[in-house]
Write a structure and sequence with these properties.
By secondary structure, the protein is of the alpha+beta class. It has a single domain, classed as Arc Repressor Mutant, subunit A (Orthogonal Bundle). It is built from five helices and three strands. It has a three-stranded antiparallel sheet.
């Protein structure tokens, strides 16, 4: 597939949206980085694809904010993987982010579909 065509239908994530997606994914249980990106991809109907160049900086940022924590574990095939989990602080942040997201969706819906006035 030509590069131009491959990126034609790409949806760029709004600033902060990736954080929300990661926190939401980790709400369902601990996961390694590749698993997080696969869950986001699968749960979005294959529309949202997070590349490693975006995912790992976001994971490190969320860890610095203490919204997630990590530890090294052995995977089923005996490889060391870094596993991330949501912290108590992260659960509170997720609730806050989901509320803000709902407000944004409502505002965008209103802006894109304004009520007809005077008709």
């Amino acid at each position: 597939m030509p590069k131009k065509e491959r990126y034609q239908n790409r949806i760029e994530l709004l600033q902060g949206t990736l954080d929300l997606l990661i926190l939401q994914t980790l709400q369902w249980g601990e996961q390694h980085g590749y698993g997080i990106s696969q869950a986001i991809r699968a749960n979005s109907g294959e529309v949202l694809r997070v590349d490693t160049g975006s995912l790992y900086p976001a994971l490190h940022r969320l860890e610095r904010q203490r919204w997630i924590s990590s530890e090294w574990k052995l995977s089923e095939n005996k490889q060391r993987v870094k596993v991330y989990r949501l912290t108590t602080r992260g659960k509170k942040q997720l609730a806050s982010e989901r509320s803000r997201w709902s407000q944004l969706v409502e505002a965008m819906t209103g802006a894109l579909n304004p009520a007809r006035r005077g008709d």
